[in-house]
Amino acid sequence: MTSVDGLRLEWRGAFDNRELNVLHAEGFGGPVRDDDWVAQVEGHSLGWVTARDAGRLVGFVNVAWDGGVHAFLLDTLVTGPFRGRGIGARLVEAAVDASKAAGCEWLHVDWDGALAAFYLDACGFRPTEAGLIQL
Ligand SMILES: CC(C)(COP(=O)(O)OP(=O)(O)OC[C@H]1O[C@@H](n2cnc3c(N)ncnc32)[C@H](O)[C@@H]1OP(=O)(O)O)[C@@H](O)C(=O)NCCC(=O)NCCS
Fold first, then answer.
1. Containing domain of residue 115, as a range?
2. Is 11 inside a domain boundary?
3. 26 Cα nearest atom in ligand 1
4. pLDDT tens-place values along the chain, 135 residues long
5. How far apart are CA 75 and CA 39, in angstroms?
6. Nearest CA to ligand 1 atom 16
């Protein structure tokens, strides 16, 4: 666990489904769902990073995994009032460090819109060619 400006960042930190569903709905839009995030990430992810301010979940990132050397960043989220303070970049940095420590060699990410400045400039990803099919 690390502390950054009063925030607690934790790899595989405990969370409950309700607080992550609220954060997810705020970040990606739409209604607050009833998804079982705890089962999903415990069953399928290498790990995740939580950011808490005085106990409140204010940030999250999920590191999906192929079981080998590839991991994939998903669900990068910081709640509105906490954006623009470097928390998103610190969440990603913690995910990078933990993925490297777990033996992964590649961390992938993709994004929509204007987030190149975030992932490339602030988080250190290099651009690559990639493809996507909506199933
Ligand atoms: C994307 C997100 C996680 C960034 O979190 P954050 O804590 O605000 O990011 P940081 O403060 O670490 O940003 C670092 C830098 O990245 C860039 N950046 C961050 N958010 C950006 C955005 N929405 N658009 C363009 N550049 C952005 C800026 O250069 C920023 O530096 P600055 O604040 O000095 O200008 C947050 O805006 C969010 O939760 N968005 C909604 C959900 C989402 O779209 N997630 C990404 C899915 S791929």
1. 2-122
2. yes
3. 41
4. 777 678 999 999 999 999 999 999 999 999 999 999 999 999 999 999 999 999 999 999 999 999 999 999 999 999 999 999 999 999 999 999 999 999 999 999 999 889 999 999 999 999 999 999 999
5. 15
6. 118
52 contacts 15 by C-beta, under 8 angstroms: no
Question: Distance, CA 26 to ligand 1 centroid (Å)?
Answer: 14
In the chain, how many domains are there?
1
Asked if residue 53 is part of any domain, the answer here is: yes
- Tell how far the Cα of 39 is from the centroid of ligand 1, in angstroms: 27
- pLDDT at position 106: 98
d(CA 15, CA 5): 21
**In this structure, are residues 42 and 78 in contact, taking their beta carbons and an 8 Å threshold?**
no
Give φ, ψ of 8 to 5 degrees.
Answer: -105, 115
User: Quick check: is 132 in a domain?
Assistant: no
Testing ligand 1's pocket by substitution, the residue of 23, 78, 93 carrying the most ligand atoms inside 8 A of its CB is: 78
- Stated pTM of the model: 0.96
Q: Which atom of ligand 1 is nearest to the CA of 90?
A: 12
